Amino acid sequence: MHGASLLQLYVFLLAGFVGFFTITRVPALLHTPLMSATNAISAISLVGSLVLAGAERGRLASVLGFVAVTSATINVVGGFIITDRMLRMFRRAPRPGGERR
């Protein structure tokens, strides 16, 4: 394995471990804001995959770009749907008779 790719693999694995241990220590109350930030990061990967898909660097790059666009879009849309469901859990139920305080 080439030295640069070994270093990249090492950084990738280290980032995975740090991310896993950081996320597991987040209290349940903070999961919704954290997911919203993650959705924004996923949107960045969507933009990158759009650039790759339209770069005309050959058929393989275009196919991989299309797969990346599809995957990133599913990730972003799914993340917003889940965030919306989580936020609905914190809404108060309407009071009987429509009374307000």
What's the short version?
This protein has 101 residues and is mainly alpha-helical.
Walk me through the structure:
By secondary structure, this protein is mainly α. It has one domain. The protein is 75% helix and 0% strand. Helix 2 (31-53) runs antiparallel to helix 3. It starts with a helix and ends in a 12-residue tail after the last helix. The mean pLDDT is 80.
Termini separation (Å)?
Answer: 68 Å
Which shape, going by the Cα principal axes? Answer: flat
Beta-sheet strand percentage? Answer: under 5%
- The chain-level mean pLDDT equals 80
Unreliable residue runs: none
* SSE string, helices as H and strands as E: HHH
Count of DSSP strands: 0
Instruction: Give the C-alpha Rg.
Output: 20 Å
> What is the helix content?
over 70%
Main pleated sheet: none
- The figure for the number of domains is 1
Q: Count helical runs.
A: 3
Q: Structural class, from secondary structure content? A: mainly alpha
Features:
101 residues, mainly alpha, 3 helices, 75% helix
List the helices and strands and how they pair.
Layout: H1 3-24, H2 31-53, H3 59-89
Helix pairs in contact: 2-3
